[in-house]
Write a structure and sequence with these properties.
By secondary structure, the chain is of the alpha/beta class. It is built from ten helices and nine strands. It has a single domain (32-214, 248-309), classed as 3-Layer(aba) Sandwich (Rossmann fold). Belongs to the MshB deacetylase family. Mca subfamily.
Length: 320
């Protein structure tokens, strides 16, 4: 596994210990079948484009995986021209729910709808843009309130590891930003018996990760692999622009090998037919090139309640 270049990730990470007053039920894991992973996403389809290979691998290792989907994707656009038909547009919430069900079955994961309403993505929206969102938008729900049902799911499912988006949501979509906010809040609150007292018995997840997908290092690797193969790279414009000011590649701490599960990942993504054109960007790089040039999915460990050493090649490092 390539080692990230930052000094911080070469050092051992001493865990922040769970306070004595909190239950320590999840601090010792001796049976692989008891391990549980929760992946928190904003919309149906996000689970299949961010970490799907990782989930498929862990499911097939006997680990329980739960996808939490915060919204129904009701205000999403139909991005596949083959699906842009009146009967699809008129029934988009139902269609996207059915797509999620198919993707869930392909990945082999469990899935839970958190029940919030898609905020949409107005042109030019940023957290400080002042652009209005619909009154029922997920983004507008106060974080403490929106985190409550996620805390309840955490306490019920009892994950050892949680993944979500970084502070910018991976990209500036209001639902992705809010998903980050409630995931961080719920991770902090789930093990505290004084918080959300009506939402189940406390349970403290042990590790929190951010997904990192389109970093400079990965894009360059795939781009040059395509060029070397004599193929047109879908990343040419990105490379020509050369603007990496928001790149977070050096924040990656954990690279999970999952190339043999890319076929499952791709099948799950194609199940979201309204969102993904099978002839479009997502599938422009042949799978064989991806498997060789970048066989991992990448994460940033942002909080750990156990000792671990970075870099990692397993989200459950320190737990097995």
């Amino acid at each position: 596994m390539p080692e990230p270049t930052t000094t911080a990730v070469r050092e051992s990470v001493r865990a922040t210990r769970i306070p004595v007053s909190q239950p320590a039920r999840s601090t010792a894991v001796t049976n692989r079948s008891t391990l549980r992973l929760m992946c928190v996403h904003a919309h149906p389809d996000d689970e299949s484009s961010k970490g799907a290979g990782t989930m498929a691998r862990y499911v097939r290792e006997g680990i329980e995986v739960l996808v939490v989907t915060c919204t129904g994707g009701e205000r999403g656009d139909v991005l596949n021209p083959k699906m842009d038909r009146p009967e699809i547009q008129e029934n988009l919430p139902r269609v996207r729910s059915e797509e999620m069900a198919r993707a869930r079955e392909i990945l082999g994961v469990q899935q839970h709808w958190l029940g919030f309403t898609d905020s949409g993505l107005p042109d030019g929206w940023l957290p400080d843009s002042g652009i209005d969102l619909p009154q029922d938008a997920f983004y507008l729900v106060p974080t403490e309130q929106a985190a409550a049902p996620l805390v309840e799911v955490m306490r019920s499912f009892k994950p050892h590891v949680v993944t979500t988006y970084d502070e910018e949501g991976g990209y500036p979509h209001p639902d992705h930003v809010k998903t980050h906010e409630i995931s961080v809040a719920a991770f902090a609150a789930a093990g505290d018996p004084a918080k959300y007292v009506d939402r189940g018995e406390p349970w403290q997840p042990l590790k929190l990760y951010y997904n990192h997908g389109f970093g400079k290092a990965r894009i360059e690797a795939l781009h040059y692999a395509m060029v070397d193969a004599g193929l047109e790279s879908p990343y040419k414009d990105w490379m020509d622009a050369g603007d990496w000011t928001r790149d977070k590649s050096e924040r990656v701490t954990t690279r999970v090998e999952c190339a043999e599960y890319f076929e499952i990942r791709d099948a799950a993504l194609k199940a979201h037919a309204t969102q993904v054109d099978p002839d479009g960007f997502w599938f422009a790089v042949p799978r064989a090139i991806q498997e060789k040039a970048w066989p991992t999915e990448d994460y940033e460990l942002v909080e750990s309640r156990i000792d671990t050493r970075l870099p990692e090649d397993d989200l459950f490092a320190g737990l097995r």
